[in-house]
Structures are given as structure tokens and as C-alpha cells.
Amino acid sequence: MNNYLKRISRIMNILFMSLNRYDDVNEQDIYLDLLREFIKHGDFVYIISTIEKKDKKDTKINKSNHCTIVYVETGRIQKTNVIEKGVNTILLEKRLKKSIIEFFNHIKFDLIIYPTPPITFVGAVEYIKKRDNAKTFLLLKDIFPQNAIDISLISKTGVKGVIYRYFCEMEKELYAVSDRIGCMSHANIKYLLDNYSEIQKEKLVLCPNCIDPIDISVCHKTRYETREKYSIPGDKIVYVYGGNLGKAQGISFLLECLYSQRNNQHAYFLIIGSGTEYGRIEKYVKKEKLNNVKLLNRIEKKEYNRIVGSCDVGLIFLDYRFTVPNFPSRLLPYMQAKIPVLAVTDPNTDIGKVIEDGGFGWNCLSNDIQGFKMRIDESMSANRNAMGEKAWDCLLNNYSVEKEYQTMINCMQIEGIY
Questions:
Q1: SS3 266
Q2: Is 291 exposed, middle or buried (0-12, 13-18, 19+ CB in 10 A)?
Q3: Is-above-0.85 flag for pTM?
Q4: Which residues are 140's β-sheet partners?
Q5: pLDDT for res 2
Q6: ∠191-93-183 over CA atoms, to 5°?
Q7: What is the chain's mean pLDDT, rounded?
Q8: Exposed/middle/buried for 118, CB within 10 Å: 0-12, 13-18, 19+?
């Protein structure tokens, strides 16, 4: 509380730039939850939200109390090939800067917040930083382009090699222009220090994925009704995976895991999401006649939360080839639902260690099918309710947006905004 009292009574203008589509600042989202925390303390937030041309929108600006959202049209960035995505991501920089000049030329910004992906915000960040003498805070959610190299989405040679080298330069510029770099975990910080000698240690701040915690656990009645609605067995232990279904999730091993449990009479696997690998999973489940697996396409958030709350164990999958330490935000809904978590990941991320150290789940490598089987067996005999309560406590203590806000405020006090 004392840190809050240190804040001088001045109002900040905050510019937030993201690839995500936002229509309402009151939506639940790791970024919007953070921005609402700034609004709660009297600041004004200005959001630049992208929208693909195919999803045309009548208005380019949306205003509400203390928040203004501007929509920037882009080419296809989501669910397309790497070349088209790369080109449109590169073009995004000029479109962002143009929109800032058009809509926010009269606003003097104090703080710019921007997550990766993408890294091509750098030109717009540099422009505002120089124009307004603004402070800059990068929320590092992935380390690109190395993560794309890891899983062979791009390469260091040929046409893709040209794109790779361009993005490497952009990445260095982005880190250089950022006054602070918020890292999702200790492994993230170590990776940057080990691989980017030009980054000063003082820039790096532990700033994990955080939300405004909401208890989404459900009562027995809701659990029964939800499972009945989606034809999910009421007498099985249900393992749920929710989120993107793409290359990063190591789908080949996920399918191997599902196949390994095809004769497990007590386990049921629910996969919810969308992405480039959705069709592959759907075909595999049908081909192998995996009767204890259900695949659902992306579901509206409120309904998704109700389904997760009606399950028993949350699943996280990451491709084993990753050398960069990812920390998926899909962990947070599981914690809100008060269910334990099984993380099946590469050896470089520390998300599994966080889960095991917190006493609310299990961890195994995403090339170890025997390890996966053992963790399933352990989870079936565990006190999952007690572990779920530990997940909720860990969320409140470590992943609350209030904590993230205070971390950023402390940094900005050092930088001289307050």
C-alpha cells in the first residue's frame, strides 16, 4: 500500500499496441486486465487494435470511459502461411505509425506498452518515444524469430533466411528501444542474459502473465449439466486442453499421448481450440477411433470457462524442440478453475517446475511417452481438489494483475514518470 501512496497525483496517457482484436476494454484478457488496472488509478488508455481486411469494421475508433480503441486494418496475419504472415507483419509498422498520427497526434503519451508478438512495432514505438519523450515497456511473450527457427517455421537460409535476418535486426532494435523488458519467468530472464549480450541486466523485470483473478470453479449441478450438454462422461476423469492448436504445441506428440490412453477406461480427453493443426487432430481421432477423445472448435470465453471448471485436470503442451523458454497463458484459466495441471513440455521452459513447486500439478517432457503415462496414473489417484486449491492460492499470490501493475509502477518510478 505504501508504494501506491508514493504515486504523485498526475494522470498518465498510456498507449497500448497489440495484434489482438479488442472491442471492449472490459473483456477478460491478460492485457485488458492490466490496462483496466491503470484506468482504475485514473490513467487514460489508448489502444491500437488490429483487424484483418476480411473482417471489415464500420468504425475505426471506439471510445469509452478513460479508454479509446483505434482499429488498424492489416492483411492476413492469423491462420496463414509464414510468407504472407511475414510480409503483412512487416507492413504493419507503417500502418501503425500512420494511425497514431491520424488519431493521436494531439495526445502526449507518457508510457507505451506493447507485447510480442510481433516485433515489428519498433518503428511506431521509436516514433512516439522520440516525439513525446515517453517511457517504453515491452511485455515479452515470445522470443521471435528464434522460436520459429526451433520448430522449423522459418530457416536461416533461402527466402525464409532473408526474412529471418530482417526479423533479427528488428528484434535487436525492439530490445534497444525498450526501457524495461517484462519477462514471463526466471527462465526467460536467464535466456536473454545468456543469448543477448547487448541487453543490460537492469532492463529485465520479472513480469509474468497476470489476470484479474475470477473464481470459475463450478458446483456439482453445473458440472453435471455442462458435461451432459457436451456429451462428456460424468463418471470419467476429464483432461482438458484449451488454446491454440498449432506447430508450437507439438501436435505429433499430443496425438501419441492420446493414442497411448485409448484403452484407459477411466480417462477422457477434451481438446478445445483452433489453429493450423485442428484438421489433423480431427482426422486422427476419427481414423484411430479414439472414443475417449472429444474435439471442440473455439468456444466463447464464458462458456469455455464453464467447461474448464467442469473438468478435472488441465493440459499444457509445448513442442520438445523449443530452445526458448515459453510460458503459456493458458495455465491461468486452469488455476482459476481450481484444477491441477499436467505440463508436457520441452526441457527449457520452467512452467512445469513452477507447477510442481507450487504443488498443483505434474510435469513431463514432450518426447517421453512413458513419462506421460506415469503422470496420468499419478493424477488419477491424486487429491485433485486439494491441488486445485493450491493452484488458486498460487494464482492470487503470483499472477494477479495488481502485482503486475505494481511491478510496472515501481519500474516507472525508477525511470522518472512519477
A1: coil
A2: exposed
A3: yes
A4: 116, 183
A5: 45
A6: 20
A7: 89
A8: buried
Spell out the residues 6+ positions from residue 81 whose beta carbon is closer than 8 angstroms to its own. none
Given a contact cutoff of 8 angstroms between Cβ atoms, the answer to whether 121 and 141 are in contact is no
pLDDT digits (tens, 9 = 90+) for 44-91: 999 988 776 665 655 577 778 889 998 887 655 565 555 556 566 666
For 342, the enclosing helix (H) or strand (E) is strand 341-345
Phi, then psi, of 134 in degrees rounded to 5? -80, 155
Nearest residue to 90 (alpha-carbon basis) of 61, 118, 48, 125:
118
Smallest Cα–Cα separation from 137: which of 180, 174, 199?
180
Are the CB atoms for 327 and 209 separated by under 8 Å?
yes
Q: What is the spatial distance between Cα 391 and Cα 369, in angstroms, rounded to a whole number?
A: 25
Select from 14, 20, 69 the least CA-distant residue to 405: 14
What is the predicted pLDDT for the residue at 5? 41
Q: Which three cell numbers stand for residue 270?
A: 477434451
Q: For residue 304, which of 361, 258, 243, 214 has the smallest C-alpha distance?
A: 243
Residue with cell 503486475: 404
For residue 233, cis peptide bond before it (omega within 30 degrees of 0): no
Radius of gyration over every alpha carbon of the chain, rounded to an integer in angstroms? 22
166 SS3 class: helix
| Whole-angstrom distance, CA of residue 405 vs CA of residue 120 | 25
Q: Count of CB atoms within 10 A of residue 273's CB?
A: 21
pLDDT above 70 coverage of the chain, percent: 90
CA–CA–CA angle 210, 393, 413 (5° rounding): 40
- Element containing residue 130 per DSSP (H, E): helix 122-132
The pLDDT tens digits of the residues spanning 214-243 come to 999 999 999 999 999 999 999 999 999 999
**Closest residue by Cα to residue 93 from 65, 80, 71, 74:** 74
pLDDT one-digit tens code per residue, 96-105: 888 888 888 8
Query: How far apart are alpha carbons 326 and 346 in whole angstroms?
Result: 9
The whole-angstrom separation of Cα 184 and Cα 332 is: 13
pLDDT (0 to 100) of residue 327: 95
C-alpha cell at 391: 493452484
